[in-house]
Amino acid sequence: MRDKQLTTAGGHPVADNQHSLTAGEKGPVLIQDFSLIEKLAHFNREKIPERIVHAKGSGAYGTFTVTEDISKYTRANVFSEVGKKTDVFLRFSTVAGEKGSADAERDPRGFAVKFYTDEGIWDVVGNNTPVFFERDPMKFPDFVHSQKRDPQTGYKNPFRMWDYWQNAPQALHQMTILFSDRGIPDGYRFMNGYGSHTFGFWNKDGERFWVKFHFKSAQGIKCLTGEKAAKIAGEDPDYAGRDLFEAIERKEFPKWNVKIQIMPEEDAETRSYNPFDLTKIWPHKEYPLMDVGVMELNRNPKNYFAEVEQAAFSPSNLPPGICASPDKMLQARMFAYPDAQRYRIGANYQALPVNRPKNEVNNYQRDGALRFDGNSGQQDNYQPNSFGGPDQDPSVKEPPLKISGDADHYNSHEGNDDYSQAGALYNIMSEDQKDRLTSTIAGTMQSIPKDLALKNIEHFRKCDNDYGSRIEKKLG
Fold first, then answer.
1. What element of type H or E holds 290?
2. Is 22 helix (H, G, I), strand (E, B) or coil?
3. What is the DSSP string of 57-85?
4. What's the number of CA atoms in the CB half-sphere (13 Å) around residue 68?
């Protein structure tokens, strides 16, 4: 006995969903079989374009609870009082792999948090690393291309990434993390997340502070060895997503302690490093971590496509009290991410349930593909107007940012120290960790030409002589 009647998308009852309409028992299929045509046409279109990066991911819902008062730094409503709870959606992902890749590949992991705040969506679109490979967005497409498939052969080629990296020492800090033990997290629950970029806070008095976001795993850090990861990749390519989903189903809700680093606005002018450089960290001795709250994931999606695949994040989603910084990569991502979502999902992607804010939305955007929310009915779509349409609110205006200098294509690599922080990271590792790190790097270099390997080794030597020497020795 059926519970519901099968219909077409137009609501028409379907008489037979098992057999096509044909001209006679052995005759050709008739185009008038509208149920078949609709079924095939939708099937051909049921996959939206996959993300260029972060293509494969898993997600879950939860809550963020404020545990400490930081109102002196920001007027953001999400932090308005201790004990305040805000719904969140968190999408984890691998970065370079395609949709069907294995979860256990050596790769950074995406860590994108959507906060459904009382004043709109706030997206922290980060990774499980505090830094990245590039500091200038002009190089981001080139870097990604070097990690993808060879245009002639269709397979990944280590030569391409090492050929790129020989001219990109700015990547050394992130490379040291990628090839270390933390390069392959044991699922998504046992890794940290970072906003990575420098963002801004501003308070009710109009004072600005620079801020970095840290999400520290309450489960601790667990990582996979290369050997174990290879075994898992072959046996269970969906390992990390499965682990997350099943843990939540068992009510073993994963948590992260949310922390921040705060830098007074004027400090940015006096640091020996550029605080807005995505390849750099802020030393914790200078700017210690401060507790803010706890994030817990406690509900699985009901439909993967609707809630995980169509989840769309953008670092430009910044509610009042949180703002951008001069971080060049952040500035570019604030354009690139929503632009990618408009291409991938459509102009009205923010109206989809997983992306829609909880507070009321009032604007003059109309029409576009897949407009399914009434399109604001009869209300006209221009402003200023005399019909009482939504109006601007000067009270949420961000304080002015002081800018100086000439417009030019500045070389952000020239004179920049690309080696010290990577070397410092290497030197806090144990002997075993150093051995595994250098063995992994040497392993990926085995097939590349000797002269290319030596050029890259020279970069590692500049981080720390022992770092490069070990790699060179292991390459024979």
1. strand 290-299
2. strand
3. EEEEEEEEEE-S--TTT---GGGSSTT-E
4. 14
Residue 345 to residue 191: CA distance in whole angstroms: 29
> pLDDT, tens digit, for every residue of 26-62?
888 888 888 888 887 778 888 889 999 999 999 999 9
Q: What's the Cα-to-Cα distance from 74 to each of 112, 197, 270, 419, rounded to whole Å?
A: 21, 17, 23, 34
Dump pLDDT digits (tens) for 127-185.
999 999 999 999 999 999 999 999 999 999 999 999 999 999 999 999 999 999 999 99
Contact 329, 134 (CB under 8 A): yes
Distance from C-alpha of 320 to C-alpha of 75, rounded to nearest angstrom: 7
Helices (H), 190-308: 226-235, 239-249, 304
Residue 47 and residue 32 in contact, taking contact as beta carbons nearer than 8 Å: no
Residue numbers annotated as active site: 54, 127
What domains, with CATH codes, occur in the chain? 1-46 (4.10.91.20), 57-134+185-355 (2.40.180.10), 420-474 (no CATH)
Q: How far apart are CA 340 and CA 336, in angstroms?
A: 6
Structure tokens at 395: 């009270």
